[in-house]
Automatic annotation (TrEMBL):
This is Neutral ceramidase. Binds 1 zinc ion per subunit. The chain crosses the membrane at residues 43-63. Keywords: Hydrolase, Lipid metabolism, Membrane, Metal-binding, Sphingolipid metabolism, Transmembrane, Transmembrane helix, Zinc. One of its GO terms (cellular component) is membrane. The keyword Transmembrane helix applies. Residues 85-604 form the Neutral/alkaline non-lysosomal ceramidase N-terminal domain. PANTHER family: CERAMIDASE, NEUTRAL CERAMIDASE. It catalyses: an N-acylsphing-4-enine + H2O = sphing-4-enine + a fatty acid. Belongs to the neutral ceramidase family. Residues 608-769 form the Neutral/alkaline non-lysosomal ceramidase C-terminal domain.
Length: 770
């Protein structure tokens, strides 16, 4: 990977405060959004056409906070008094097929990969009790839409195959989280519903993630050594806004008054420092903001704003004397459900110049299609790329602030206890008791009408709107949903006041459409407690969940608990809204699968099992009934690569468009090559594109690869029958370039019709950047 020079890092430094884009004040009533399908908007026409066809064919921020939301003061300890642990970090490439595979997140059939803006990674963090190393956990942060059941099973299988040294890792102590990027290859989910817009399952896409996740854990395991953990916080007030403010305002006023903002603005960061020389080997942070800076029509794979933040931090640490080689920066998601990085609010792109309605994110025509959220650089008209960079930079700046403060004042995690528990819970008609003695029940998974409306991050289609009451306003869609599986009276009553559009939890043909059996998991090291959520908890849902856990944990911890929430993890289970938000039935409420009591059930299940985290605890809960493993049942309509051919008189890697002789910094360099399908070789731990710089002796050194945000790889077919294609490699030099003489390299692999795959390299003419 290319190193960044100090001069380049200065270009990546935080903007002056006066240049930052601030979040709109609540009084502006900026509209909000709702996501679609596996978490974002899709084309309703395409989706429901497929639904109809299938029916015929087949059938804090993180709370380092107490209930009041005030930050705890962390205990300051001298080095001699710091608690030591076994710590390890690891990072590996999980970039899958970046072309001809539908992306996961927006669930938009038109969002099929055409290239790569930034490689995707798995980052693994292991913490173990030094005196009892079997007490440990591994927390993974993947540049994916979420964690997933199939993915988690693959990781468990892969670690088992590594041998007895890895037998210490299992269901109980592995947390698999996604950054919630909406711009990565899909087709890897365990359940059918999110597979629909990717045309099914891709073994290649799935295996790329699993292989990288296993390798990241292996590297973290091999790096285990004695070290220290330190925690800090900072506020990032312009890091997100609430896209569903109307639903958030339905929470009790006295509860909302306890907090300073409509989203959690606090980032919490955990530093990993090895004891041998005091070098820092990594950081793991939590902050809630959706991975929707890149828009639903972006077709270049990337880790979105959290991928940018991780890249910036890791680049900065290459030139920081306090950091060890191979420093790993994980930017984990938190209570993300109703947050958006489109911090200028949602506006109607219909020429009216008006903001979308607060209540249902519609415009003057009463529909949502013209309602779009605006990132800080929305005027760039670049599919969200510059806004994405800026929102990632804000998280990087916040994390760097914490990191720099920890250099001068240690705020240690203390107490030797490292514990974890995990089990599966079937949410179909799960009965439990609320704290006030009231009986409550959850439901089989179902999605409401507002699920199909999307959000202003990327709206849905037709006449769906957030807050839609369903039939009779949408009788056609009621019919479509009914063709699949009409909910029975018990399900209808259980899901109230949600009008059920898709009774997905009661459809199992050809295999389960969504999870009903979900992961319940909590991790603990010292006073740090990590809730691992399978659902996208909204801001207030996360606050309540963390407060309840903090209250219970305080009964057995020596220090004030520091509680964070990470997810979406393990088995992606859509959303978790508060009961009051559920009643409004915007996107988040409609996508809360298990009914109005889902959040209360999650709180009940976690709090009632926190005793497993106590210092003297030696047991773990029974895993319960395992969720279905659908990996051998998958359906796919994704075709393989048949062949690649170069045009007559050309060879693979030949340059079709050479660069200019000279560019000024700030220009865009574009080179076009005779290409081949990148699905032939994913080049994990390698690169498709590179920039080489000429040294004083005439030698060429690689200084950029395709992990660099500003080096973009684009592939396109030019002749489908003959298998001909071209590749553009674009270097946006305004980002981090320095003067010099350069050339562009392209690394490809072609497939013969009756033969194997062959590698090739293309090299452009040199050019000068000044």
């Amino acid at each position: 990977m290319a190193d960044s020079s100090q001069g380049e890092l200065e270009k990546l430094a935080p903007l002056p405060t006066s240049e930052k884009v601030k979040s709109p004040a609540p009084a502006l009533e900026y509209p909000t959004m709702a996501l679609l399908f596996t978490g974002r908007a899709r084309s309703a026409l395409s989706i429901f056409s497929i639904f109809a066809l299938l029916s015929v064919v087949l059938f804090g921020a993180i709370a380092t906070a107490s209930p009041g939301g005030k930050l705890h003061k962390f205990q300051k300890l001298a080095d001699a008094d710091r608690q030591s642990y076994l710590i390890g970090v690891g990072k590996a490439d999980i970039t899958g097929p970046v072309v001809e595979i539908g992306f996961a997140g927006y669930a938009n059939l038109d969002q099929t990969g055409s290239g790569l803006r930034q490689r995707l990674y798995s980052r693994a963090f292991i913490i173990a009790d030094k005196n009892n190393p079997s007490d440990r956990f591994v927390y993974l942060v993947l540049d994916t839409q979420s964690g997933d059941t199939a993915m988690r099973n693959g990781l468990l299988d892969g670690l088992k195959a590594l041998g007895s040294d890895y037998a210490v890792y299992g269901q109980n102590n592995i947390a698999l989280t996604g950054t919630h990027s909406h711009s990565g290859p899909g087709a890897w989910f365990n359940y059918l519903l999110p597979q629909i817009t990717s045309l099914g399952w891709s073994q290649q896409s799935y295996q790329a993630i699993v292989n990288g996740a296993v390798l990241s854990v292996q590297r973290a395991h091999e790096s285990l050594q004695e070290g220290y953990l330190d925690v800090g916080t900072t506020d990032i007030p312009d890091g997100a806004i609430n896209r569903s403010l109307w639903a958030y305002l339905n929470n009790p006023e006295e509860e909302r008054a306890q907090y300073d903002a409509e989203t959690d603005i606090t980032m919490t960061l955990l530093r990993f420092q090895r004891a041998s020389d005091g070098k820092n080997i990594g950081v793991l942070s939590w902050f809630p903001v959706h991975g929707t800076s890149l828009l639903g029509n972006n077709t270049h794979a990337a880790g979105d704003n959290k991928g940018v933040a991780a890249w910036l931090f890791e680049s900065a640490m290459k030139n920081d004397a306090t950091a060890a080689d191979g420093f790993v920066a994980g930017f984990s998601q938190a209570n993300v459900g109703d947050t958006t990085p489109n911090v200028l609010g949602a506006w109607c792109d219909d020429g009216s110049g008006q903001q979308c309605s607060l209540e249902n994110s519609t415009c003057a025509d009463g529909k949502s299609q013209s309602c779009h959220g605006r990132g800080p650089e929305f005027q760039a008209l670049d599919l969200g790329a510059k806004s994405c960079y800026e929102m990632g930079r804000r998280q990087f700046a916040g994390a760097q602030t914490i990191y720099d403060n920890l250099k001068s004042s240690t705020t240690s995690v203390s107490g030797s206890t490292v514990k974890a528990f995990h089990f599966f819970q079937d949410m179909r008609y799960f009965n439990f008791t609320l704290p006030d003695g009231t009986k409550a029940q959850t439901c089989p998974a179902a999605l409401g009408f507002s699920f199909a409306a999307g959000t202003s991050d990327w709206p849905g289609a037709f006449d769906f709107v957030q807050g839609d009451s369903g039939a009779p306003n949408n009788p056609f869609w009621s019919l479509v949903g009914g063709l699949l599986k009409a909910p029975g009276p018990q399900q209808v009553a259980c899901q109230q006041p949600k009008p059920v559009l898709l009774d997905v939890g009661e459809i199992s043909t050809p295999y389960a459409w969504t999870p009903n059996i979900v992961d319940i998991q909590v991790l603990r090291v010292g006073q740090l407690v990590i809730i691992v959520s399978p659902s996208e908890a909204t801001t207030m849902a996360g606050r309540r969940w963390k407060a309840a856990v903090a209250k219970e944990a305080a009964t057995f911890l020596d220090e004030d608990p520091v509680v964070v929430l990470g997810g979406p993890a393990n088995s992606y289970s859509h959303y978790c809204a508060t009961p009051e938000e559920y009643d409004i039935q915007r996107y988040e409420g409609a996508s809360t699968l298990f009914g109005r009591n889902e959040l209360n059930a999650y709180i009940n299940l976690t709090v009632s099992n926190l005793h497993y985290l106590q210092p003297g605890s030696t047991g773990t809960p029974s895993q319960g009934v395992l969720p279905p493993d659908n990996r051998k049942n998958m359906i796919s309509f994704i075709t393989d690569v048949v062949q690649d051919n170069a045009p007559l008189g050309k060879s693979f890697g030949n340059v079709l468009v050479q660069p200019n002789l000279t560019y000024n910094i700030g220009d865009v360099v574009n080179v076009t090559f005779v290409g081949a399908n990148p699905r032939n070789n994913l080049r994990q731990e390698q690169t498709f594109a590179a920039i080489e710089q000429q040294g004083s002796g005439g030698t060429w050194t690689q200084v950029r690869d395709d992990s660099d945000w500003f080096l973009v790889y684009t592939w396109r077919r030019t002749n489908f029958i003959l298998g001909q294609s071209e590749v553009d490699i674009t270097w946006e030099t305004y980002g981090n370039a320095q003067p010099g003489t350069y050339r562009v390299k392209y690394y490809g692999d072609s497939k013969a019709l009756f033969g194997g795959v062959s590698s090739f390299v293309g090299t452009s003419n040199s050019f000068t950047l000044k």
